[in-house]
Amino acid sequence: RFFIPLLLASLPMMAAGEEIAPALQDSWGDFWLFRFFVNAAGYASIVVPGFLLIQYFKRRNYLETGRGICFPVIKSCVFGSEVKSVHQDDGSLPPRAEPTESSTARQIFKLLLCALGLQFSYLTWGVLQERVMTRTYGATETDPGEKFKDSQFLVFMNRILAFTVAGLYCALRKQPRHGAPMYKYSFASLSNILSSWCQYEALKYISFPTQVLAKASKVIPVMMMGKLVSRKSYEYWEYLTAALISVGVSMFLLSSAPNRTVSTVTTFSGIVLLAGYIIFDSFTSNWQDALFTYKMSPVQMMFGVNVFSCLFTVGSLLEQGALLESLRFMARHSEFTAHAVLLSVCSACGQLFIFYTINQFGAAVFTIIMTLRQAFAILLSCLIYGHTVTVVGGLGIAVVFMALFLRVYARSRMKKRSKKLPPGETPVQKV
């Protein structure tokens, strides 16, 4: 009971301990920790009543005693319609077909299409993300302009378009019969919202290359979460590559450049926000992995998570009065409107390219494409926004990507070896 008052009382001291540019923080309402608690309170105002309703229906044994027109909706949201599948692949899309000699040219064309689609979607998304969060809009010779500060509105924009795209896809293409209780998507949705918010907010305090390197290192907390949530075990090479990634990221973060500006200084707030992003994102992936034990396709997962994401974000924005303020900002700056819309389009299209690439070519090819995308994103950000990287920092980046490619290679070798195992022998489960 004493923790929250003590934490709120320490906010002035925490903020005073950091040199935050005036453009980044005009009032206490713009301090990231304050905004985090305000957003969390908004989500809690939806989560707590929902939790109480679910407990009420379960205590009443509503599945056996319920009647009326609301029964199918409550049953789907609280209880689901099917038991779990023993094999996770039962609910996925049809297994990808191995390319044949007659269709080699077509497979190469599809691979190029997937690679270009992923690179264009996420490179554009990364450049726009840095533009929106670190630059001003409406600047003139006499007016310095204003920055857009509400990261939650950008999360809402991304989720509402992803929800629409996934809903249309599910309506137009046949999907497996859905059996998971809808409320279980809310856990992944909440952690996904918080990870995205931390990702946007972190760009106010750290450089984009630092953020990309931190994303590359999230395999470490994913492994930790896998042990805690799913009780997974890992091979020695997974621990080795995780250690190499840690060394590379540390080299990059500890390197210093002589001409760093305020926008590229790695501050304590930026590191905390990055840690929050990695932790929340690691929980999201592991919870989604557990949800796939129900019969569902990846697009159904995308739809279910984004339903709750839209509900949480729009509810919190309305409670704070921030939705109208963000819409007024869009009305004042047409350039921001174009950037926000394009940001959402790239995010939604990128998710569809992810599902298609994994379905057609497998996770290893997808991981290689996305690893190259991270390297290109750092290069593009340095060229466009003038970030400086020292020799030690460059070596750290090289170590990280060498470890990522080593990880992909070792995983593919393990998969080939597991196919040759005699019946009854199972390989160690891998992340």
UniProtKB/TrEMBL annotation:
Matching SUPFAM superfamilies: Multidrug resistance efflux transporter EmrE
Source organism superkingdom: Eukaryota
Membrane topology: Multi-pass membrane protein
Molecular-function annotations in GO: 3'-phosphoadenosine 5'-phosphosulfate transmembrane transporter activity
InterPro entries named among the record's database cross-references: EmrE-like (IPR037185), SCL35B1-4/HUT1 (IPR013657)
Keyword annotations of the record: Membrane, Signal, Transmembrane, Transmembrane helix, Transport
Keyword Transmembrane: yes
Transmembrane segments: 33-57, 108-128, 153-172, 236-255, 261-280, 301-318, 338-356, 363-386, 392-410
Cellular compartments annotated: Membrane
Residues annotated as signal peptide: 1-17
Family: Belongs to the nucleotide-sugar transporter family. SLC35B subfamily.
Record's protein name: Adenosine 3'-phospho 5'-phosphosulfate transporter 1
Species of origin: Agelaius phoeniceus
Gene that encodes the chain: Slc35b2
